Amino acid sequence: MSEGDGGAEPAARERIGVIGAGYVGLVTGVCLASMGYEVTLRDIDAAKVAALSDGQVPIYEPGLEDVMAEHASRLRYTLSLERMLDRSDIIFIAVDTPPTYSGDADLSRVMGVVDELERVGADERHILVMKSTVPVGTGQRVRAELDARGLGQVGYCSNPEFLKEGAALADFLRPDRVVIGSFEARHGDRVASLYEPLGAPIVRTTVPTAEMVKYASNAFLATKISFINEIANVCEEVGADVAVVANGMGMDSRIGSAFLRAGIGFGGSCFPKDVSALKQLAGNSGYHFQLLTSVIEVNELQKRRVIGKLKKHLGGLEGKRVALLGLAFKPETDDMREASSLVLAARLLAEGAEVCAFDPIVDSPTDRLKGVTMCASAEAAVSGADAAVLVTEWASIVGMDWGGVRSTMRSPVLIDGRNALDPLEMTRLGYVFEGIGRIPAHVEVPR
Ligand code: NAD
Asked: Could you give the domains of the chain?
């Protein structure tokens, strides 16, 4: 049995449609195909649909290409909503819900799908399943719109997605839990039966509660990160080591060790926008979510603290060459949305520094990285630099020959923005080293 087989054949032969073949939609479709379901994915991006039909995966996600190829006979890609509806019973909506200028979620793609459905028509065999992360109340709004447009027979469920880019297949096929909110039990039952072969706990609830589980989960994880980052900042003031503090805290089963690594802040397509959307959602309903305001502010400031560390060692940054190692918002993805590297690069360029960068996957400078020189390797980026900053802890960068590259630098200042390197080892290799909240290497630590 391959990784994607999910353990058993589906009980009922529901046919699956997916609207939006991005990170979530594509993984959802490919994983459900690997579980034996017939899947039709619909996207509005003609280049994406053409690439997928050609067997090419337009995103970087480990393992996805292989599982997609293995189950190609059960996967169809189309630009046509009609064709997708024709071939599907349960339809996942996985369109993007980016932030608006106000910080609220932009629901225009979601509501656009409802407009299209009104035009094309759908019937009682169809259930819409919202996988996109949407503010609490969206399901009720969509339900009301469907009813008002003569689509009252179409079912609706909320089924938020919790996968992590970089580990998306395993997260989908071996989830900690599956959350399903429904207006009618019979619709929730059909969606639940899709997931039963996975053997994961299934949380059945109302639509608004399911929507809130997703926002509350992401906001809590973001809070954990900002909390440990603040502890790290205090550690720097008082001479304690946040890595050991986090380890000691994480051993407490009430706390847990996940999401306790201090660094230069969280980014990506989910945490920043979801935390801000929850804060706005609360504000719009009359509640000031004070804690989340701080979580966001701590995260913004954390990205900039690296500039202070560089200035401490280099003085002014005008004309200094700084190497950024890793650009994606985390390892094992090509996703640059809200990546800390974007803020760092912009700040460094504004200070007059020359910025050279390397990422194992992100190889073409986006508009937002204008002015940054892309290098062919981490070694090339570091060579001739006055300082290097580890921005994304790709294994290939963490494991590079740090001893060998040190002598190629103009000055050996190394800032570890992810606490992925050993301070003692780096100091021994001759670096002027700083992590985030790490104890200085000259302090003797009893072991
Ligand atoms: P994405 O931008 O990678 O993909 C969205 C896709 O939807 C794009 O391919 C776009 O062309 C397509 N699209 C837009 N309108 C469409 C329409 N009317 N019909 C068909 N296709 C349409 O976004 P993503 O990262 O996959 O995120 C999708 C949703 O899932 C968001 O709400 C996000 O918050 C949520 N989510 C994302 C992750 C993640 O790690 N990326 C994890 C959990 C939840």
From this structure: 16-205 (3.40.50.720), 218-434 (3.40.50.720)
